[in-house]
Design brief:
The structure is a single chain. With 243 residues, this protein is mainly α. It has one domain. 86% of the residues lie in helices and 0% in strands. The mean pLDDT is 89.
Length: 243
C-alpha cells in the first residue's frame, strides 16, 4: 500500500508538470466520461441515502418532540459526509474502473510504448486530463447530490411524519454553514483527483494480457475505495476535530 502510494505521488508530480499544456478538448472529454455519465447513479444514491436516514430518525425525533431538528440533521449529514463520500465512491466504481481498464488495455497492447517512441510522456497524455477533469467536475456532482439528498429527506419526512416542508427547510437553513459547504466541495476536489490518480496508476502498472486487465480493474476499485475513505478521515480530522 505504501509503495503504491509513493508511486501515485510520483505520477501526480509528473502530471502537474503538464497541467498548463493539456488540451482543453481532452479535459472536456474526460469530464463527460467521469462525472456527467456518473451523475444519474450518484444522485440516485444520494436520494436513497437521505431517504433512509429520514426514515430512521423521523420517528425517534417525533417521539422526543425534536422533529424540528430533522431537517438540520439530514442537511449536516448529507453535506459533511454522505454526498461527498457516496458520490465519489459511485464515480470511482463506474468511471474509475473504466479509467483503469482503458489505460491497462493500452499498456498490454503496447500503445503506451508507441507513445514513448514518439517522445510523448504517457503520464502527461493519460493522467493529467483525467485528474484535472475529475478534480473540476466531481465537486459539481457533490453539490447536486447535496441538493437532491436534502430534498429527498424533506419529501420522506413529509410523507412519514407529516413534517411541513417549511419547518424542515428552516431547520436545515439554521444548521448549515458556508464552512460545511466549502469543505464538502474541497472533499470533492480531493476525492476526484485521488480516484483518477489511483485508478490510472493501477492501470498503468498492468503487464500481461486480458486477464491482467481484469485483475487491475478490480484492484483499482478496491484501492480507490480504501484511499478515499482514508482521505475522508484525514480531512475530517483536520477540519472538525483540530480547531
Amino acid at each position: 500500500m505504501l509503495e503504491f502510494l509513493g508511486l501515485c505521488v510520483q505520477n501526480l508530480i509528473k502530471s502537474i508538470k503538464y497541467l498548463f499544456r493539456v488540451r482543453f478538448s481532452a479535459v472536456l472529454t474526460q469530464a463527460a466520461a467521469i462525472s456527467y455519465d456518473s451523475l444519474p447513479i450518484s444522485l440516485i444514491i444520494a436520494f436513497i441515502a437521505a431517504a433512509v436516514i429520514a426514515i430512521q430518525v423521523s420517528k425517534q425525533f417525533l417521539m422526543s418532540g425534536a422533529e424540528t431538528y430533522i431537517g438540520g440533521t439530514i442537511a449536516i449529514v448529507m453535506i459533511r459526509e454522505i454526498a461527498p463520500g457516496f458520490a465519489a465512491l459511485a464515480i470511482g466504481a463506474r468511471a474509475g474502473t473504466a479509467i483503469s481498464a482503458e489505460i491497462a488495455n493500452m499498456q498490454v497492447t503496447s500503445q503506451v510504448d508507441a507513445l514513448k517512441t514518439l517522445k510523448v510522456d504517457p503520464i502527461g497524455y493519460y493522467f493529467t486530463p483525467r485528474i484535472l477533469a475529475a478534480a473540476i467536475t466531481v465537486p459539481m456532482v457533490v453539490l447536486l447530490a447535496e441538493f437532491v439528498g436534502i430534498t429527498g429527506g424533506m419529501l420522506v419526512s413529509s410523507l412519514t411524519i407529516n413534517l411541513h416542508p417549511a419547518r424542515y427547510l428552516h431547520s436545515a437553513w439554521l444548521w448549515m454553514s458556508t464552512k460545511d459547504i466549502y469543505i464538502s466541495l474541497f472533499k470533492g476536489v480531493i476525492f476526484g483527483a485521488l480516484m483518477a490518480l489511483v485508478c490510472a496508476t493501477r492501470g498503468y502498472q498492468t503487464h500481461g494480457g486480458a486477464k491482467d486487465v481484469g485483475i487491475s480493474t478490480t484492484q483499482a476499485a478496491i484501492l480507490s475505495t480504501i484511499y478515499l475513505l482514508v482521505a475522508d478521515f484525514l480531512i475530517d480530522l483536520v477540519f472538525y476535530i483540530i480547531k
